[in-house]
Amino acid sequence: MTADIAPITVKEREARIEKAQRFLTEQKIGALILDAGTSLEYFTGISWHQSERPMIAIIPAKGDTRYVCPGFEEARLRELIKIGKDVYAWQEDESPYKQIAVALKDAGIQSGNIGMEERLRFFILDGIRKEASHLNYTSGDTVTMPCRMIKSTAELSLMQKASDITTAAIKVGISQLQEGMEPAELSAIIDNAHLKLGGEPDFALVLFGESSAFPHGSIKPRTLKKGDIVLMDCGCSVENYSSDITRTIVFGAEPTKRQLEIWSLEQRSQAAGFNAAKIGAACLWE
């Protein structure tokens, strides 16, 4: 199902960085620092495993993106870089935070605010502010969130593809339900279907009967019997854009009055949420 997908282009990521730089300039923030994780990938396209050795990207309000990484990882990082070119490598007997301070100075940042993205780990922030105590460190949420919350056509297409794959995988799972099977068996069927359909399986939570009343399952072993609720909460990713879909059926029998009552209540609640969602409306609890 993924033969027709179009990955996010470098041009789109460059536009994301330009948008972030506009927010940085407007908010008088000199730079945004990204830890390894989803924001790093969103802006640069680099997928990097978090470890005890900091690898960060710096998006200055003006100028090119810069990177700080462990020295032994420099060659691998350079292979992955498509935006920016400057890499500040630190060796095992050196401080990564000194290199970050140098990178900020080279970007022309001598004073003012530095934004830290929401997933940046505390030990990195702590190291940077000790090394560059003349700067003020603030949340970068006001930059990253307005960028990431508004999805492009390309992003929506990938999210839709992931959702289509999960919907199809759940149908495969339903077609193979058998009395006496365990939840883990159905989970494996759905995960395998995700793979065959082109998605990267993220999760397939399956709950039978009374266990379906637990939001994330029960530790009690259970096998499927006729009349059981079968709840499937599943997701996969396509180009790192994810689906998360829940479907509920009754196995091998007509739903009971109580099952229909609860299912209908959920349906009405969902419809109320969709009806309340309007452009410009705030998401507030009432």
Q: Notable features of this structure?
A:
alpha/beta; 286 residues
Descriptive overview:
With 286 residues, the protein is of the alpha/beta class. Helix content is 42%, strand content 20%. The protein has nine helices and ten strands. Strands 4-3-2-1-5-6 form a six-stranded mixed β-sheet, sandwiched between helices. Strands 7, 8, 9 and 10 form a four-stranded antiparallel β-sheet that branches. Helix 1 crosses helix 6, helix 4 packs across helix 5 and helix 7 packs across helix 8.
Low-pLDDT stretches? none
Secondary structure category:
alpha/beta
Estimate what percentage of residues fall within beta strands. 15-25%
Number of helices: 9
What does this entry show, briefly?
The chain is an alpha/beta fold and 286 residues long. The protein has helices at 10-26, 38-44, 74-80, 96-106, 122-131, 141-149, 153-175, 183-197, 257-276, and strands spanning 29-35, 56-60, 66-70, 86-90, 113-116, 136-139, 200-208, 229-238, 241-242, 245-250.
